[in-house]
């Protein structure tokens, strides 16, 4: 797979971060960017863990992404090279949690991170108290409802 320039961020590793986030979350780079949190999350991680540790994780991710030509190869490489190592596994799990729940080590990154958590898309729901479901939404059956 080729890592393309994603946004006008002068840090090459940002593109790697977005590409590995796509693989870890199952959401496309466009879907992740549409949260409005991509750069915020990247900078937040840089402020939370040592730059050398994060760079090592991103270098491993870059090699995986560049040397995987099928989805199966990519999944196997992530399992073997990221989830098999305790330090990279911790970072990967934290990135997944960050995108899905908007939290890093149990605390929300900001107000938007709660609203834009991927968990709401997966649940076909909205974040209570933050986004309205829409006018007359109560008249529509929930997704996968047996009602």
UniProtKB/TrEMBL annotation:
One Pfam family matching this protein: FAD-SLDH
Protein name per the record: Membrane bound FAD containing D-sorbitol dehydrogenase
Species this protein is from: Chryseobacterium wanjuense
């Amino acid at each position: 797979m080729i890592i393309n320039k994603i946004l006008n961020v002068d840090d090459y590793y940002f593109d790697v971060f977005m590409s590995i986030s796509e693989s870890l979350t199952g959401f496309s780079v466009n879907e992740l960017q549409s949260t409005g949190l991509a750069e915020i999350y990247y900078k937040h991680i840089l402020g939370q863990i040592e730059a050398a540790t994060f760079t090592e994780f991103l270098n491993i991710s870059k090699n995986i992404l560049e040397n995987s030509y099928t989805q199966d190869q990519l999944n196997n490489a992530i399992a073997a090279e990221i989830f098999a190592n305790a330090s990279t596994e911790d970072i990967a799990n934290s990135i997944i949690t960050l995108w899905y729940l908007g939290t890093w080590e149990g605390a929300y990154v900001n107000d938007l991170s709660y609203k834009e958590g991927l968990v709401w898309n997966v649940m076909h729901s909205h974040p209570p108290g933050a986004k309205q479901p829409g006018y007359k939404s109560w008249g529509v059956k929930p997704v996968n409802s047996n009602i």
